[in-house]
Design goal:
This protein is an alpha/beta fold and about 325 residues long. It is built from 10 helices and 6 strands, in the order αβαβαβααβαββαααα. It has a domain of about 210 residues: Rossmann fold, CATH 3.40.50.620. Helix 1 crosses helix 7, helix 1 packs antiparallel against helix 10 and helix 6 crosses helix 8. The longest helix is centred in the N-terminal third of the chain and has 40 residues. Bound molecules: iron/sulfur cluster (SF4).
Length: about 325
Amino acid sequence: MNDRLHSSADTPSGDASDQAAISAKKAEKIAYENNKLHKRLCRQVGQAIGDFNMIEDGDKVMVCLSGGKDSYALLDILLTLRERAPIHFDIVAVNLDQKQPNFPADVLPAYLEKIGVPYHIENQDTYSIVKRVVPEGKTTCALCSRLRRGILYRVATELGATKVALGHHRDDILETFFLNMFFAGKLKGMPPKLQSDDGKQIVIRPLAYVKEADLIRYAEVKQFPIIPCDLCGSQENLQRKQIKGLMREWEKKFPGRVDNIFSSLSTVVPSHLMDRDLFGFTALQATGEADANGDIAFDEEPCSTGASQPADNAFGSQIISLFPAD
Ligand code: SF4
């Protein structure tokens, strides 16, 4: 008989305690990873707010809540940061109920009541307008977004909001950048902060530094009551989907490439592009002074680290010191 086959660990109670120990270790690891994710999101959002001076003392920030993972995360992280920020700002959550079929109108109010956030639900049947105006088979998103935007800006003014916060993240910004480059021939992305097109609001995107993959995980961790985004029956933009696929493939084959592309959006050298409105090529004369940004005839291999700049205002610095990198 082989004695080693009869250790106490092999008894039924030994198995059970082994299993319990393994489960406890697993739960500990998951809790550790979740906490790390939360800290990372707080740090990245705090840094973006600081870098672009998105939120100032006394602001009233209107958080546009669609019921998707991104806007839930945006609200959640802003609430955390507000408790630790060196400034005071108010938050009001706003959802536009576009009267899409089967929209569960009670989900967001119930969630917002539970977490104690002031909110406003704006009821506007843009769904019927879009269905009536856009011919069958044509994409409805352009008109739908235009209508939504106008309504949200109006609501922001009515609520006295000084900032309108949207849940676009790093991947949205990159996809928009490539869509504009590939299909509109423009170097144009989605800015972290800009005046609205009616000139009345400042629109901010505090998730600008956050990867979509992190938001997907965060939504699972927090169990946000997600409202599906296909209630309108519209298909996801095919070109955007292709760009998403392209970025996924790059990330797999060339880790770090997408980070470098993102970093390049904040490291623009107008004299090395071709926009005559951005750089005075036509009037250019040699100054006789050495210029590190001057032409070196043949470029060296770029070797960007993709590192972002440290935050340069009180908000960003305080948040980064509270949620340091691991
Ligand atoms: S997916 Fe539907 S709800 Fe979203 S912008 Fe397009 S039409 Fe509007």
